[in-house]
Write a structure and sequence with these properties.
Layout: E1 2-13, E2 16-27, E3 31-35, H1 42-50, E4 57-62, E5 65-66, H2 72-78, E6 80-83, H3 95-101, H4 112-122, H5 124-128, H6 139-151, E7 157-161, H7 169-184, E8 188-193, H8 196-202, E9 205-210, E10 213-219, H9 220-225, H10 227-232
Parallel strand pairs: 3-8, 3-9, 6-7, 7-8
Antiparallel strand pairs: 1-2, 1-4, 4-5, 9-10
Helix pairs in contact: 3-6
């Protein structure tokens, strides 16, 4: 089942066309990776899906419902949850308070305590840091907190923007392993990443975005074998 569908979606920033007639289908319970160089339009795509920037052309469907007219908070209530680039946790709130901020939607609020305990089990380090200010966490711990906060909202679709940014290779490996585990538990993921190899290695399918255009789409393993992807992004 296609959970999210973009049909010829375009986004403008003034005179600049940042996204050009993008067509993307996100299958339910799968990981879909959107890869490309910095400035290719990946973050713009997520921001358009979340309603943070308006589209200038095209349509957006979530579970076959046209969500173009909906506000950002209405899309969140439907279960479209984005973890932004740079994490953007609340630095002067504790780990517990950050997690609780993730469960403000009507669909997640009744299960706040249960979901918080589930996050503590999934990310044991957060249990150890429960009463610490989020600003005192390491970069990797902050990224785990950002992911856990997103999961607290009970997402139908979890969208992540550059989750490996600024992390050590060891922590990057741990983050991608965590995303694969989350998907294995049934959460649909749309992943935006510059780390093309590791992103496609955990994905089921992928799209390559260049200069605001989708230039290639296929199964993730097929993209990894693509001559264009290997030369342009893997240095092979």
């Amino acid at each position: 089942m296609i959970l999210l569908r973009l049909e010829n979606l375009s986004v403008r920033y003034g005179d600049v066309l940042a996204l050009r007639e993008a067509c993307i289908a996100v299958q339910e319970k799968m990981i879909t990776s959107l890869v490309g160089a910095n400035g290719a339009g990946k973050s713009t795509t997520l921001r358009a899906i979340s309603g943070l920037v308006p589209s200038s052309h095209g349509s957006l469907y979530f579970e076959d419902r046209n969500i173009g007219p909906l506000s950002t908070d209405e899309r969140v209530e439907l279960g479209l949850i984005q973890i932004p680039e740079g994490r953007l946790i609340f630095p002067y709130m504790t780990v517990r308070e950050n997690l609780e901020m993730g469960s403000m939607t009507k669909r997640s609020r009744p299960e706040r305590n249960v979901n918080r305990e589930r996050m503590m089990e999934m990310f044991p380090i957060l249990r150890e840091r429960t009463d610490q200010l989020a600003s005192t966490l390491s970069g990797g711990e902050q990224q785990m907190l950002a992911i856990a906060r997103g999961l607290m909202a009970k997402p139908r679709l979890l969208m992540l923007d550059e989750p490996s940014l600024g992390l050590s290779p060891l922590l990057v490996k741990e983050i991608f392993h965590t995303l694969k585990r989350i998907n294995g538990q049934g959460t649909t993921i749309l992943l935006v990443e510059q780390n093309v190899k590791q992103s496609l290695e955990i994905a089921h399918c992928g799209y390559v975005l260049e200069n605001g255009r989708i230039v290639s789409s296929a199964g993730a393993q097929d993209l990894l074998k693509s001559d264009h992807v290997r030369k342009a992004y893997l240095g092979l």
